[in-house]
Amino acid sequence: MEKYMMAQGVQFDDSENGFAVLQLNRDADNKLFRPLRDGKKPVLEDYHVVASAYLKKTAVKNIPALLEDLFYVFNRCGDAPYEFEGHSMSVSDMIYLSLEGKKSLFYVQPVGFDRVTV
Q1: How far apart are CA 50 and CA 61, in angstroms?
Q2: Pairing outcome for strands 47-54 and 113-116
Q3: How far apart are CA 93 and CA 89, in angstroms?
Q4: Quick one: DSSP state of residue 80?
Q5: 52: alpha, beta or left, given left = phi > 0 and alpha = psi -120 to 50?
Q6: Which of helix, strand or coil describes residue 33?
Q7: pLDDT of the chain, 118 residues: tens digit per residue
Q8: DSSP codes joined into one string, 48-114
Q9: What DSSP assignment string belongs to 44-63?
């Protein structure tokens, strides 16, 4: 995952906190626009980064709240405060978090987020 994120231009040092929003490439199979089920995993190469930014240290204390906040911001395309090149956040999008040196990836489900490994 780290090599892929670096290739996408997203790299946070262990002392930095940040996030990236990933959305499916336009040429990806439309069948992927659905919730993950039955142990299926997303294919990282089918995604591209549409936004990334650093986070304040206070943002890392409550990951579920942070994910909900990011969903709220990026589900309102016109109001996103970052350089945002995608559609409003929806099912099948992913959020990459780099928090205090720990890297994780979350898949947007119809309700909530699932942590995924790729």
Answers
A1: 25
A2: unpaired
A3: 6
A4: -
A5: beta
A6: coil
A7: 666 666 667 777 777 888 999 998 877 565 556 777 767 788 888 888 888 888 887 767 789 999 999 998 888 755 656 667 778 888 999 999 988 888 899 999 998 999 998 6
A8: EEEEEEE--GGGGG-HHHHHHHHHHHHTSGGG-SS---SPPP-TT-EEEEEETTEEEEEEEPSSSEE
A9: GGGEEEEEEEE--GGGGG-H
* Rounded Cα distance, 83 and 13, in Å: 21
Query: How long is the chain?
Result: 118
Kindly report the pTM of this predicted structure.
0.83
